[in-house]
Amino acid sequence: MPLPQLSVVVPIHNEKDNVAALLAEIAAVLRGRLEWEAVFVDDLSSDASLTVMQGLKAEYPELRILSHRSQCGQSTALHNGVRAARAAWVVTLDGDGQNDPADIPGLLAERERAAPSVRLFAGWRVNRRDSGSKRWASRWANAIRAWLLKDDTPDTGCGIKLFEREAFLALPYFDHMHRYLPALMQRAGWSTVSVPVNHRHRLNGVSKYTNWGRALVGVRDLLGVSWLIARSKRTQTVEY
């Protein structure tokens, strides 16, 4: 099998009713367009998510499944999926089906038009389909983050992103890092672009986060990322 041109990495935790439909949508968008693979990372689901995914391999040879031996969270699942990915560029999607795989071609088109310095194309949910309280909490969190980090990104929490694998793996890893990818990429010297994308209602299952839980860890992480940015130094080098 030739090396894929694109790896689609999807963290999964208790999404047994969503994984089949999501993979079918990914395949419908990418088959015949380019060589691709889907890396689904099961974060020790307590439902039948892993069994469902194993049953899909016969129909989707592009599917690869990684399974955690202990539950580690979304950032670790993403990081392990990207490390296992074989393509130079990676698209990430949330496993709940709220991100639309139909937006992947648009992200790829933005990459073709962008300068070489852009290594991250971040989805921007212009019409969010979450509850009012969740939208309100995200609006305040994004405002505080933008004020403190100056990352010029309206929506860092969107799960659909396109980035260069090598650039991602060079970033400092920590839990919840996926919420700060634009700021971390910029800290590393790369440019980022926000791309308007679709957002859908969750049809099955329940959210893994609460507003309070997200806020409590967010304060600590935000201060940590701010410290990383303040302590970073970059310069060009000349070899003789």
UniProtKB/TrEMBL annotation:
InterPro entries cross-referenced by the UniProt entry: Glyco_trans_2-like, Glycosyltransferase_2, Nucleotide-diphossugar_trans
One GO biological process term: lipopolysaccharide biosynthetic process
Domain named Glycosyltransferase 2-like: residues: 7-168
CDD domains in the record: DPM1_like_bac
Parts of the chain that traverse the membrane: none
Keyword Transferase set for record: yes
GO cellular component term of the entry, any: plasma membrane
Pfam families assigned: Glycos_transf_2 (PF00535)
Keywords associated with the record: Cell membrane, Glycosyltransferase, Lipopolysaccharide biosynthesis, Membrane, Transferase, Transmembrane, Transmembrane helix
UniProt keyword annotation of Membrane present: yes
GO molecular function, one term: undecaprenyl-phosphate 4-deoxy-4-formamido-L-arabinose transferase activity
PANTHER family recorded: UNDECAPRENYL-PHOSPHATE 4-DEOXY-4-FORMAMIDO-L-ARABINOSE TRANSFERASE, UNDECAPRENYL-PHOSPHATE 4-DEOXY-4-FORMAMIDO-L-ARABINOSE TRANSFERASE-RELATED
The name this protein goes by in its record: Dolichol-phosphate mannosyltransferase
